[in-house]
Amino acid sequence: MVNPGDDLKVLILDGLKRAGLSLNHGDILVLAQKIVSKSEGRSVNLAQVKPSQEAVELAPKVEKDPRLIELILQESKSILRTRPGTIIVEHRLGFVCANAGIDRSNVRSTDDSGEWVLLLPEDPDASAQYLRNQLEKDSGVSLGVLIIDSHGRAWRMGTAGVAIGFSGMPGLVDLRGEKDLFGFRLEITQVGAADELASAASLVMGQAAEGTPVVHARGFPYALREGQLSELIRPEREDLFR
Strands of 144-153's sheet, edge to edge? Predict the structure, then answer.
């Protein structure tokens, strides 16, 4: 039940106290995108959106409200695929996702219109960095902060938690040159460590009415360092699914 302007640092520290947890060096706090977006005022009332001609023309093809499509267009670099019910886009943040990550679930209307939707944070890396700075200052320990969302995948059914912004932790861990159990030197293995933690945390958070938007993670198996989302974005020239 986070509202615009709420201080996530205070909410997280209160939650840790209620749970009997303290922060240690190397801990990572994983946040659901929704509470970040809500605190940053990224809610939009569809009643105040005027659809463009492009949105009006696309609406019957994808069977969506043209006002919602207008927001999707504004949040995207390009449209990659469409089908009834779904628009696959390259988000302005660089990743490919459905409907530009715009969502109605768990978004409380601030009036009686019932037409509010939530956009992704403007700059999730910056949001994670700011919160990390605040938490480290208060706790006196070195932390990582990870902001996650649920995305579908081109080649598998179902959604999974993925990183959309982080600070103080690696996104990609390069194991090329490391040896396996039999002495074979790895040649191509790079681990999407931030996405792996995102998926694990998403299991704890849930997807419906669980009300658990922050997960405290301890024991991350890789050294913390400065990192950013761009590590995980596959360059278009290497993307075989576009």
Answer: 156-167, 144-153, 28-32, 214-217
Q: Is 191 helix (H, G, I), strand (E, B) or coil?
A: strand
Whether the model pTM is above 0.85: yes
Q: Which helix (H) or strand (E) holds 169?
A: none
Class of CATH domain 1-35+123-233: alpha beta
Do the two domains 1-35+123-233 and 43-119 of this chain adopt the same fold? no
Residues, the chain: 242
Structure-token match 């939530």, residue found: 118
Output the CA angle 202-204-27, nearest 5 degrees.
85
pLDDT digits (tens, 9 = 90+) for 13-22: 999 999 999 9
Distance (Å, rounded) from C-alpha 98 to C-alpha 175?
Answer: 31
Residue-wise pLDDT tens digits, 146-160: 999 999 988 899 999
Q: Which CATH number fits domain 43-119: 3.90.1660.10, 3.40.50.300, 2.40.30.60, 3.30.930.10?
A: 3.90.1660.10
Separation of alpha carbons 62 and 101, rounded Å: 16
CB neighbours of 75 closer than 8 A, spacing ≥ 6?
89, 91, 92, 100, 101, 102, 119, 120
List the chain domain ranges.
Answer: 1-35+123-233, 43-119
Q: Which two tokens stand for residue 145?
A: 């902060």
Helix (H) and strand (E) counts for the chain? 6, 11
